[in-house]
Amino acid sequence: MSDSEHKIVTVGQIDIDLKKFHKKPDYSALPLLPTRDFVLFPGVTFPVQLGREATLALAKAAEKEGFPIGVVCQKDASVEIPGFGDIHDIGVVADVLNVFELPGAATTAILRARKRIRIESPAMSEFPIHPNILYAKVKELREQKPSDSNDIELNVIASQVKDSILNLMKHSADVPKEVVVNVNDIDDPALAINMGATHAPISPAKRQEILEENSLTKRGLMLLSQLRQHEEMLKIIQDVAERTRGALSDQQRNAFLQQQYESLRKELYGDEGPEADLAKLQEQAKNLSLPDDVRAVFDRECAKLGRLAPQSPDYSVLLSYLELLLELPWGKFDPTTEDIAKAAEVLDADHYGLEKVKERVLEQIALMINAPEAHAPILCLVGAPGVGKTSLGQSIATALGRKYRRVALGGLHDEAEIRGHRRTYIGAMPGRIVDALRRAGSANPVMLLDEIDKVGSDFRGDPSAALLEVLDPEQNSHFHDNYVDVDFDLSKVLFIATANTLSSIPAPLIDRMEIIDISGYLPEEKIEIATRHLLPRLINDAGLKKTELKLDADTIGALIEEYTSESGVRQLEKKLAGVVRKTVLAKVSGKTWHKRLRPSHLTELLGPAPFMREKYEGNDYPGVVTGLAWTAAGGCTLCVETSLSAGKGDKLVLTGNLGDVMKESASIALQHVRANAQALGIDPAVFENTTVHIHVPEGAIPKDGPSAGITMATSIMSAFTKRKIKERIAMTGELTLRGKVLPIGGVKEKLLAAKRAGITTVLLPEANRKDALDIPERYLTGLTIHYVSDIKDVFNLAIES
Fold first, then answer.
1. What predicted TM-score, i.e. pTM, was given to this entire model?
2. 707 is catalytic
3. Share above pLDDT 90 across residues of the chain, in percent, rounded to a whole number
4. How far apart are CA 418 and CA 413, in angstroms?
5. Torsion sign over Cα 584, 589, 593, 595
6. CA–CA gap between residue 703 and residue 663 (Å, rounded)
7. Which of 194, 498, 565, 728 could make a disulfide contact with 389, Cβ separation 3.0–4.6 Å?
8. Cα separation, 212 vs 564, whole angstroms
9. What is the DSSP letter of 724?
10. Known catalytic residue at 574
């Protein structure tokens, strides 16, 4: 049975013998029939559906025996077995004229109301019909009839009630024609008001309120007021465009329209419709500390969302925007570690070497611990591929105890990728910075801007220009993303950029960053990295035991020098992975393998070595000098050869694929020796008929840079004086025409290259003394360094007497 058990139904005209329905009601113990949502009025005959066992038994007994019953309305229609607290005190005494069953419907009883009654107290019946039937002592309520002077007013009210009811019935397809005829034929004003209240489209609560009114005149006015409001509502429904205000206020009209609109939307979309989306968003917003300007934007956009239909394209766009707005970490900050020793331990555990870089990072962490509100500088790690720039950023986040997010900038051409797209565009999205913050869930993460040197620009804009705002500590506290369209504070984000070179980064962008150069790892450091990190991880990932594969330092060193050529450890990791795979293959195939690898085993596993190990080639001839050079893969030795021949053509011939700067160094070196020939013990006339040929071996490899100046000058001096260079000596430095030795770069890499090649003495510019002091002493054992400021010092130290 449905919840609305006593709803109005259409019943044809039934001829009923009313003779047996003249018994007086027993007001001392009147049986009560509670209705769920129907209010019966005096004098009205009306059909009511019955579904509960108790009410059905009572109706059948009353119809059979002809005794009257009390009809009262429940306060809550959902109560199945109502008690006295669940029903209204005022109802009517009524006769059950007939009980019958309609095809396809529930049992129906036709009730005819007599008088109004009030329940005084519960009562007991000597012959209870059903255990759930209530009996009550009731009192009949008399109607307050109007005086003669008010008869006209009552008649006018009743007439208007009839007109309103008939007008409403014309617009209702559910009202049978015979009901319209019955209402039209009523002459008694009291019956007209009661009949109107029965058929009026008003709520049960309003009907009950009207029934409880003793004065017929007031009852009619109350009913007429409700009917007038409903007529106005019908006009609004029929012609909303004309916005007929009538007797309703704007507030009432809007409330009604909103109610109708919400009913339609609920019918279309159920509980998962727009209201559910809006309620979910507003519930989330309650628990967030949104800034005032963000809260204002959120409320405005929510109101707009509530007016949109879900089928509208703007609906999904606006819903996605509001969801993103709530997902951003407004005011959410991760605590920064205050244990500087633990931070240092994390950096040391993750990265071997890079002492200067780790020292600078620890300085920054200390500053953030001591002054949390201070603006964090933008760090830019510059170095060759594979030196650990990206992993260093992740280690910094771990050391700080913050979230870590990486933003890849390589190949970026669209400015909107940084600032976001405007929401007017199809497929609009927030920029990568805001998206990274959303994914981090924190307003102070460590954000790595990877490959910042590979950002491009075209007709879509210049992302580097957008990065100027992101990376400026004085501006990024009000970073504006076009999609979010409200400012976000980036000042607490620790930005770390990475690059392979500074040459492709715009100067204004470089100016906003603190450059930290990561030149690469020394071979000794690579051995430690392979032993501590790379090899254990590869062995574990391959499912091998530690005892099944071991590489000592000599083997790893041979692998580094003969099979890799890089500043970082990326190629080294690949070669080690190749060794591990060969071992696994042998194990799975049931073959024997070398559990402790020696350098001699590498050729068997990896094939012939593509690179030659650094070695001292000797200075057996005058004019042959060992220089030191820096490459992207680290330091190396460079042999410079000078040969003299008779000739009157070109005085200087250069071979070996030399760059412009190196050619200039050769010209300066020759000019200095020629200008100081007498002081150096050389006949100046010999230069007129001599061609000087300078060659740097490995001609297929381009070479350039100013640091070979003193090497070339020494080679020329040795060739002209026919004095050999001392054993196992190498040099590097830039030369001027005055003979001054200028500082150069890559000192650490060059010194270690000299040591690997078996050099015992190195000549460095005096100005580079400080650079050599930064190198751990254990790496320089067995190496003697002389610092020179003039080319004469170089000649005295390098050339044999």
1. 0.56
2. yes
3. 23
4. 10
5. positive
6. 10
7. 498
8. 100
9. P
10. no
